[in-house]
Amino acid sequence: MNYQTKPHILFRHEEITAAVQILAEEIRRDYQDKNPLLLGILKGSFMFMADLVRVLNVPVEIEFIRLSSYRNVGTAPGNLEMVQGLRTEIRGRNILIIEDIIDSGKTIAYLQNYLKKKGAASLKLCALMDKPARREAEITIDYLGFTVPDKFLIGYGLDWDEKFRYLADIYTLEIED
Ligand code: IMP
Ligand code: MG
């Protein structure tokens, strides 16, 4: 394919840092003495997770999970599979899911259902971004950074075909043939 990508900046790193700081204050207030398990969804949440726990300044445990939706190989979206499962005990834990962006909501709906079955004591969701335009599953976001337009976003952990995750800012991406 012959293409050019045209990124436009949406959030500069300074804005992201300010939003992460506010989220950390809210989470600190609610989880001060609860020894929560912060569960990041790979790969998109890795940068957000690192920045969040750095400023959180409360004792937390960290785990990651990897889910695959086969979106790029033509099977029905929402057919989720756990690529890298959990080794940590979930029963009785206060779980806070850390996600980069909520789109259809299917990833989170699947994961929340799984964690409930595993006996989590409490289950909340922290997402840096919410793209509500294409929501299919009903999701409550307990801690949210930004609501974003229905555009494809890259940077700060988010990829397009595994590219651009390393960028410190967040951009909208337009693909031109
Ligand atoms: P959902 O199951 O449709 O809510 O999908 C959420 C997942 O899709 C996120 O964890 C992201 O990895 C990915 N995703 C959704 N929107 C974007 C985007 O604009 N850019 C990059 N990845 C995205
Ligand atoms: Mg993701």
Spatial gap, N to C terminus: 8 Å
Helix content: 10-25%
Query: Mean pLDDT across all residues, rounded?
Result: 90
The molecules bound to the chains, other than polymers, are: inosinic acid, magnesium ion
- Nearest-angstrom radius of gyration? 16 Å
Shape field: globular
Which spans have pLDDT < 50 for at least 5 consecutive residues? none
Biggest sheet statistics = 6 strands, mixed
Structural class: alpha/beta
In the sheet with the most strands, the strands line up as: 4-3-2-5-6-7
Please write the string of helix (H) and strand (E) elements: EHEHEEEHEEEE
Number of strands: 9
Residue fraction in strands: 25-35%
Number of helices: 3
Question: Would you mind describing this structure in some detail?
Answer:
With 177 residues, the chain is α/β, with parallel strands linked by helices. The protein contains three helices and nine strands. The strands form two sheets. A six-stranded mixed β-sheet has the order 4-3-2-5-6-7. Helix 1 (13-31) crosses helix 2 (46-56).
Compose a concise summary of this entry.
This protein has three helices and nine strands.
Label this structure with key terms:
177 residues, alpha/beta, 6-stranded mixed β-sheet, 3-stranded antiparallel β-sheet, 3 helices, 9 strands, 24% helix, 33% strand, globular, binds inosinic acid, binds magnesium ion
